[in-house]
Design a protein that fits this description.
six-stranded parallel β-sheet; 507 residues; single chain; alpha/beta; 24 helices; binds iron/sulfur cluster; 12 strands; disordered C terminus; 11% strand
Length: 507
């Protein structure tokens, strides 16, 4: 898929413009601040309980790296295991192919409704919109996703998609919209959590009992047995995975882990990192199909393995670490930029720090929004500190900024593509070229430093042209009356000249 929005999503303005609008919304800021601070504090306490957190983090990182290094082998092993257990595997190169496969599978059942487990991959490909266009209604069953769907809204957080809504807003959405989608909200519904949850439960229950087709993603896929794993905390996922006769799971290829021993690590780090729970409330696992006479679960199971830019991301030595992500959302909850701008400003189903490095890699940096995302960060490093698989998000952000400014070569769909440098960075490029020229010539550097010292009284307090806005909010450093090298030679009498000079120019 080329740059721009994921399928099913409108074109978005660049991050600075969207964030500028978002930060003026005081309700949004208050909702976000309250929610992110609550989750981050709880997470810090849950993580601090484990003496071996650092070892678990390192183990998670290594397992993911090893799997990604041999991804082809593990995916083939996974396919064999799923087929052996009675399932069918489909390979989708991009969003359009994945949507076509799922649509045809639903059509083949004769059904026009599906129930869905919360899934980032299906949001990424715009599956709901693609199904709707073919007359198939997809019902979200996760509470937060239900709120987003009823409110004709977009998710703004990986774990808590309706984090930007408060209880009063949710009550209003339920009262006004539930009736159009099925069972209406009870009369006199208030904004107490118990009543809201009860209204959602009653509304969803009739959908679960009627559904013949379920659609899910998966948090993990175990190659050795072909087992898929969904980690959730409401029980809706369990209903979708066990009640419908046909189950279709759309999963990114990076979600495979080799063995159950490997899974053990992530089942410890994910709950603590995401919801700050010691153990996840509902961890559903299924392997292939079930026998109608003896067990719950689907009679037909289809696994759609989604690429959609992932193998291109894998080809980038620095950027590929983003594929380690287990979508815990801890990086969102500590990010000062996310806390103020909110998730919608990122123009993607992947908001926050992980979105800022994942979306421009999956979609390319060709659009305004994707070229702006690597700049949606203060590079404070808080995201790296909390990441349970040690993704160095600041490193990837800087790497992607370089790509945006300089252009360069990347792989798209297995083909090398030359990227044009993004517009709007001409001054930065010219400044870097000039700096490169001067730093490579010690004589020119010395001359420039002396010139700068002698003319320092005439230096402007702000930069002209494109640098004006940047320097208006910053103090430019004062140029010393005498360059360091001259001072060194003068005070050391030139005694250490040779070594001093070489050392300075060597840096
Ligand atoms: S990048 Fe790390 S902290 Fe952020 S969602 Fe992914 S795993 Fe969690």
């Amino acid at each position: 898929m080329s740059g721009g929005a994921f399928v099913g999503m409108p074109a978005f303005p660049p991050f600075p413009r969207a964030a500028h609008e978002a930060v003026r919304n005081t309700t949004l800021r208050a909702n976000l601040r309250h929610a992110t601070h609550t989750i981050r504090d709880k997470r810090a306490r849950a993580v601090a309980e484990l003496d071996d957190w650092a070892e678990l983090r390192e183990a998670g990182k290594r397992i993911k790296d090893e799997t990604l290094r041999h991804l082809d082998r593990y995916l083939e092993q996974l396919e064999e295991s799923v087929v052996r257990a009675g399932g069918t595997v489909h390979w989708a190169a991009d969003a359009a192919e994945a949507n076509r496969i799922v649509t045809e599978l639903v059509r083949a059942t004769g059904e026009t409704e599906v129930v869905k487990v919360k899934s980032m991959a299906t949001q990424e490909i715009g599956l709901n919109e693609a199904l709707e266009a073919e007359g198939i209604h997809a019902y979200e069953t996760d509470l937060a996703e239900l709120i987003v769907q009823l409110g004709k809204d977009r998710p703004s957080h990986i774990l808590v998609p309706a984090i930007h809504r408060n209880r009063g807003e949710i009550r209003d959405i339920f009262r006004e919209e539930m009736g159009a989608w099925g069972r209406p909200a009870p009369d006199g519904l208030t904004d107490t959590p118990a009543e809201l949850a009860d209204a959602a439960r009653l509304h969803l229950r009739e959908k679960f009992l009627r559904a013949k087709v379920g659609v899910s993603g998966a948090n993990f896929m175990v190659a050795e047995t072909g087992t898929l794993v969904v980690v959730e905390s409401e029980g809706n996922g369990r209903m979708c995975l066990t009640l419908p006769e046909t189950l279709i799971s759309v999963v990114g290829i990076e979600k495979v882990v080799p063995t159950w021993r490997d899974l053990e690590v992530f089942l410890q780090t994910l709950p603590r990192s995401s919801t700050a729970e010691r153990m996840n409330p509902y961890t559903s696992m299924w392997t292939g199909t079930s026998d109608a006479q003896t067990a719950d679960g689907p009679r037909a199971f289809h696994l759609v393995l989604l690429d959609n830019g992932r193998t291109d991301t894998l080809a980038d030595e620095v950027g590929r670490q983003a594929l380690r992500c287990i979508r815990c959302s801890a990086c969102l909850n500590v990010c000062p930029v996310y806390e103020r701008a909110g998730g919608h400003a990122y123009g993607s189903v992947y908001p926050g720090p992980i979105g800022a490095i994942l979306s421009p890699q999956l979609r390319g940096t060709g659009s305004e929004i994707d070229a702006s995302l690597p700049y949606a960060s203060s590079l404070c490093g808080a995201c790296y500190e909390v990441c349970p698989v040690a993704i160095d998000i600041p490193e990837v952000l800087v790497h992607l900024r370089e790509r945006v400014v300089q252009g360069g070569e990347v792989t798209r769909r297995g083909v090398k593509v030359t990227l044009k440098p993004a517009r709007g960075h001409a001054a930065e490029r010219a400044a870097m070229r000039a700096a490169g020229f001067v730093f490579a010539r010690p004589g020119a550097l010395r001359l420039g430093q002396r010139l700068a010292s002698r003319t320092r009284r005439f230096h402007p307090r702000t930069l002209p042209g494109p640098g004006r806005a940047w320097s208006a909010a910053r103090d430019l450093p004062k140029v010393p009356a005498e360059p360091f090298r001259d001072w060194w030679e003068r005070t050391r009498g030139g005694a250490a000249q040779g070594s001093g000079r070489q050392e300075v120019s060597g840096k």
